[in-house]
Every structure is written in C-alpha cells, then in structure tokens.
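Attaching the record inline, Q. Sequence:
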Amino acid sequence: MIKSFSLFFIVMLSTQICFAKANPVEMKLSSPDKQIELQIKVGSELSWSLVQSGETIITPSNISLQLADGKVLGKDAKIKSTKRNSTNTTITAINYRKKEVADNYNQMTITFKGNYGLIFRAYNDGVAYRFFSTKKGGIVIADEQANFNFKANHKAWIPYARDPREGDKFQTPFEIIYDQTPISQFYPDSLAILPLLVDLGNQKKALLMETDLEDYPGMYLGLNKQTKQGFQGVFPKYPLNERTGGYETLNYWVSKRADFIAKTTKSREFPWRVVFISKNDKELADNDMVQRLAAPSRIADASWIKPGKVAWDWWNNWNISHVDFRAGINTPTYKYYIDFASEYGVEYVVLDEGWYKKHDILTSSEEIDLKAILDYAKSKNIGIILWSSWHDLDVVKEKAFEKYAAMGVKGFKVDFFDRDDQKSMRSCYDIAELAAQHKMLLDYHGMKPSGIQKTWPNVLNFEGVKGLENVKWARDNMPPYDVTLPFIRMMAGPMDYTPGAMRNATRDNYQPSNSMPMSQGTRVHQMAMYVAFEAPLQMLCDNPTAYRKEAECTRFIVKVPTVTDRTVILDAKVSEYLVTARSKGNNWYVGALTNWDARKLTIDLSFLPEGNYKAEIFSDGINADRDATDYKREEKIFTNKDKIVINLATAGGWAARFEKQ
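Structure, as predicted:
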C-alpha cells in the first residue's frame, strides 16, 4: 500500500512538473494608446515578443543573465510578485534638442524567486526592458542573453564594428558606416554596434538601442544563426590586464580578459534594451527614448554648464595664414584662435593633441604658455577646453581636474577610449562625476553615447561617429552617410561630427588632404549640419583665416544655437534627405541635407507661430554642382501661411534663420 501511494505521489508530482513546463505563464503589457503590445512568457525559458497594431514585429526572443556560478536568471523562473503602474509626465531636458520630453508609458515589474526581476515598459512608439538584481552581496555575470528575432528577413542598416584594434573586435573607435542588407546576409564572423535600424516595410522601422549603460559593458549584435532573421547580444569580457599602445601609445588596450562580462557588489538595475518603432521616417528622426529611460541628472544645479561652439585647431592642421609668426601648436597661434572666437561670438577654443608633454597631462609643452593663453582667453571672455587621451587623464584625474579647474580651464575633450567594457564604462561615469565636482565640461571621443549625457549633463558631446576628420585621409562616401546618421546614430545622443568646412568639393574634385582638408558636398550642406545635427558642444572645424574670408557664412553658423527649445522634422527619408526645424526663443532655424542626388523639396512654414518672420536664407548656388563652394544668400519676409520650394544640388543643402519681427 505504501509503495502504491509513493508511486502515485511520484507520478502526480512528475505530471505537475511537466504540466508547469508545458504551460508557461503568459502576460501582456500594452502601450497607453493600445497599439503596441509586449507579450512575456515565463516558464522553462523567459521570452518576450512585440506586436504593433496586430502585426508581429518581434517573435518570441529569449532573455537571461547567466551567472559565473552556473545559475541562469531566467531559466525555470518562478514569479514572486507582479506590479503594474502607468506614468504620464513631462521631463525637463538639460542641453537637449527640445526643452521638454513627453514620458508616457505603462510598466510591469516582475520579481522572481532568487533575488532578481525584470522591468518592462510599453510606450506608444516603442518598448524597453531591463533586468535587476536584489542580491545584496552582488553577482558575477558570465554572459547576458539578449535576442531580437524578427518575423521576416527584413532589410537592415548594419553598423559593423570595423577597424578592430589589436585584432580585438571589442576595441573599436565606434566610427562606422552602414551596410544596407537583409538580416540573413549579416556577416557571420562580425559584430554590429548599436543603434541598428531594421526596415519593417510600409515605411515602418524598428531601431534597436540601449541606454543607462552605467558600470556595465556595451551590447554588440551578432546574427542569430538559427533563425537568420534576428540578432543576439554579444558582450566584451571584463579586462584583467591592460597596456598602452596604438597611435602614439595613446590607447589603453586590453591584453587579457576574464571569463565574465560584469561583476556587481550590491543590488542594482542593468541597462535598458530598447526597440523604437516609427510609422515613418519623420518619426524615426524624432526619437526621445534615451532621454526617457536614462537615469536622471545627478547635478542638482546645472546652470554652470554652458553649451556652445568651439574653434577647433586639429582638423585644419593649425593652418592659419597672413600672420607674422609661425603657425602651429604654440601660444601665438592659440591667441589668434581666441581673437577669432571673440570677434565672431564663438564660446570656446580647444587645445587639441600636442599641447602637453608626452603622457604627462600635468605639464605643458615648451611651446605652450598655458597660463598666458588662459589669461588672454579670460580677457576676451572665451573658455578654454583641453584635449587628453583617456589613459593620460585617468591616471592623474584628481590632480588634473583640481589643477586645471583652479587655472580656469572649462573642460576636457577626452579621446581614445575605443572600448566599452565594464571597466571603461565605469571610468566614463567616474570621470564625469569628478569633472562635475570641479564644474568642468566633457567631450568624449572613441566612445558612443549611452545615456550618461542625461545623468551627467556636463558630458556635452561624443564622437563615436565617422565624422569630418575622416576626409583628411579617406574616400568614404560621406553625403549618404550624412543623411543616415540623424536617423540612427544621433538617436543615441549628440555627435561630434565636427562640421564647418569652408573648402568644399564635388564628387569629382574631392581628394583627401591632411593639411588642407575639404568636405564632400556643398558649402550649404556643411552649414545645414549646424541645424540638423545635435551637438550641445559643436565644433567649427576650419581655421580662423578661412572663416574670416567667408564671413557671412561664418556669422550664420555662429548664430545657430547648439541647444534648442523645440525640434520639428519637416520632411525625411533615411539615407536620402532630411529637413529639420529648431527653435530658440522666438527664432527658428531650418536645415536641409541631401545625398548625392539633387532634389526639389517644399518646406511648409506652418510650424512657425503667428506673425512675420525675416528669413536669412543660404541655398546652393546655381553652379554648386561644378564648384561646391557656390551659394546664394538672400533675405525675405514670411508667415506661417507660406511654403518655400527649395532646390538642393548634388550633396547639397539649404539653411535659414527665421527671426520674429
């Protein structure tokens, strides 16, 4: 009898276990407008899928955190509690392309047995999820499983992680171009960086993103080799040993990695995994997901943070002329840049590579009298920003910030990160916090934005873009790239593309030059970038001599604000053209860009408030297809009842300032 009962109990228990595994818990979370639905399944595996307006976008995609001790957070998960809440509020943005950001979402927090959980959010234009751990002693994460499986083999814009340093795919400057290809043709031995764009058809697109990347490695994407219709997350392992190397030994390479990607010491939340959904390309270029999801500002009073434009030296190779001193990395040259900045209303001058002795950021080179430069800049009301490699600053950061803040330096351009493992990302936040304590600005190079620009708003810009510096040595196809970036890379955050070339070339006339560089496309193409590109700290890449020769173009550029109250995308098609309007106070600014195709567009001025507006307009000259410097300037009066037909030359542009009368 006892044996029969025991057998019966075992059979019943086995049946219950099999039943539980065969019938996972299914939950749904809808967006406020009910058009987007997140579907979550919790069972032997943990997965999510995404449906919009009844159409499946993401098919079931498994997610988990795999710990170094063998446990998998997400495998055979047992729900402890579920909490739902909704938010409909407005975020006041700091140094952004709009003053206010609508933050309207439904949220579901699932807490599992085992001291971990998941937060899901559904917005009207996308979804996001993140893991969290409540284990007080911390955990060691061997790997993270993140999948994005699409329903079909869609076309995608793939930003492959190119130019690996030391043969390591995870050591990259994040300067990418986009390959347009079906997902299935993703190179199997390659990785892509984020954001990554997928064309869903019927004008709809999905942008894969991440944010709030604090003390955690960045996510790369590889092909899901089983479905060949999706992507899976790949993460750099934690650095164990590092050494200097690379160009002028300015990099800090990883020479040995651990067998885990991250370790924590306390309970914490992990980065957001994000899918933004747009119904058309105008929506795609007006994506606020990073501002919504990144951690709030940790600077109580950010009024000391002054965005603005910067007279930059390195791109133009210090090639000023008509002076009575030898131009170069020396005190007279920088005084000349300061004079130019003061004359034209440019807020900052940067001293780029070469101002300090090799690897010793605390000591100026013999040709630089830093105190004299700072004193002269102060007398002209110009701020000075200093360049440094990440390694050279990091090893003496406390001394450097204390010394240079006391001398009156306004910030640092920190270069050659070229990594986003956990250690380098932790350093980004540590440097930002220390800089904020000394009220100093930052511009990160060799690094893509990750949400830190909201959390530490003294970080005003990032490179992580194949910007204008590349025309000094490469023949990359820039104009199509210029009208792709605003839809993909720029949606992660501001980008230090460094526009402003006054030497402009057609496709046939362009040639790389280090000392006398030129841009691809027209003069007004360059000018329109100051409206189209988000960059709270925006460079003027050419030299003061060139800008003085082209005074009316220069004066227009410096009038365009680097942060604005509103942004409206007037017309757009990814990789083809973009028309952007921004406002600051009562004035509006419009910039239009095209790829190599000349085109005619109509700008509807209904975005303007009531009243008359005096417009200063720069358009491509009638001969800009032969001489890319050719442009036409005119002034006219408009109201919001008017429409303007504009003609963009090949790789052309159009730029205007509308001043309220």
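The chain has a mean pLDDT of 96. DSSP finds 13 helices and 40 strands in the chain.

More tomorrow.
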